[in-house]
Amino acid sequence: MTIDYALIWAGLIAFAVIAYVCLDGFDLGVGILFPFAKNEVQRDEMMNSVAPVWDGNETWLVLGGGGLFAVFPLAYSIIMPALYAPFFIMLLALVFRGVAFEFRWKSINRQYLWDWAFAGGSIVATFAQGMALGGLVQGIPVTGRAYSGGWWDWLSPFSLLTGCALLIGYTLLGSTWLILKAEGAVQEMAYRFARIAAVLMLIMIGVVSLWTPLLHEHFAAKWFAWPALLYVVPVPVLVLLCAIMLFRGLSKQHQLTPFVAAQCLFVLSYIGLGISFYPYIVPSSVTLWAAAAPDNSLKFLLVGAVFLIPIILSYTIYSYWVFRGKVGKTSAYHGEVTN
Fold first, then answer.
1. Which residues contact 60 (CB under 8 A, 6 or more apart)?
2. C-beta neighbour count of 273 within 10 angstroms
């Protein structure tokens, strides 16, 4: 039996990307909600809810980007020039956000500046990620084996829409995370924002889902042609069930259910996107197998992945287990919370 190493690696990279979205999405969402906290005590509680895990969450971003470079070098050489601007903006925003975690606890007199760095970095990084996704989905012009578009081709009404959609989605993840981890006024605020974000998120899922098949013929063939339609129908059905679970959990003020339902909505949306993409890694231009490195390289790298990915999963699970439970108002990332 012939082993399809390119397909295996596509699955591993896809897993790394969705792991990043699900894990780093909620801590970026907490940053998006940061300006709405009423005082420093609430902001401390919000930041403390993600402080122990945020840097581990970003491990998956490194794994996904590094894996794409090593395993699908042709795709990397096409996608990066096309999306340099949003990727650069995203990374710069993540730097500001990461520095804010450390400096806001030390620079008491200038704490408000680091509060804005944390919030601004989260908002800008999220919007840039959404625009990069939109730029990839709408298609990248390729001539031969190289990017043939311009500097601003990624900027379009569709990429602006996906940028806004991801802001709303991460707000939903962040608010449901705070429902799970926070108490009192912060939790009440999180419930309010979660209800608003849930409605807007479903609207965005609907709009993007209807627009995406119009971008490429093979997208439309996956979602609207018979009998392929039979294979994709479960995705919107499951989205509807997750939406019901989300709103039911919020209405009954459950704490875990909204977070699980929000994560499931992201996973299902990602699966729908994967269905649309396959077998392309650059839509309508480059397939997985055309972009892949030689099989010998894929086999060699796979050996490392077999050891590395379980280790990352293990310490991720362990860190969440160690820091399980409510944050409280008096716990702090560095010392006591300053009122």
1. 16, 17, 19, 20, 23, 24, 312
2. 19
Count how many residues are written for the chain: 339
User: Can you give the three-state secondary structure of the chain, one letter per residue?
Assistant: CCCCHHHHHHHHHHHHHHHHHHHHHHHHHHHHHHHHCCCHHHHHHHHHHHCCCHHHHCHHHHHHHHHHHHHCHHHHHHHHHHCHHHHHHHHHHHHHHHHHHHHCCCCCCCHHHHHHHHHHHHHHHHHHHHHHHHHHHCCCCEECCEECCCCCCCCCHHHHHHHHHHHHHHHHHHHHHHHHHCCHHHHHHHHHHHHHHHHHHHHHHHHHHHHHHHCCHHHHHHHHCCCHHHHHCHHHHHHHHHHHHHHHHHHCCCCCHHHHHHHHHHHHHHHHHHHHHCCEEECCCEEHHHHCCCHHHHHHHHHHHHHHHHHHHHHHHHHHHHCCCCCCCCCCCCCCCCC
Spatial neighbors of 196 by CB under 8 A, at least 6 apart, are none
> Are 184 and 329 in contact, with CB atoms under 8 Å apart?
yes
List pLDDT tens digits, range 63-94.
888 888 889 999 999 999 999 999 999 999 99
**Angle (nearest 5°) at CA 89 between 125 and 143:** 115
Reading the block at residue 139, the tokens are 């298609």
Q: Are 301 and 156 in contact (CB under 8 A)?
A: no
CA separation for the pair 166, 256 (Å, rounded): 22
Neighbours of 148 (CB within 10 A): 14
Task: Record the pTM.
Answer: 0.91
Domains of the chain and any CATH numbers: 8-322 (1.20.1630)
pLDDT digits (tens, 9 = 90+) for 33-72: 999 988 888 888 998 888 888 877 888 888 888 888 889 9
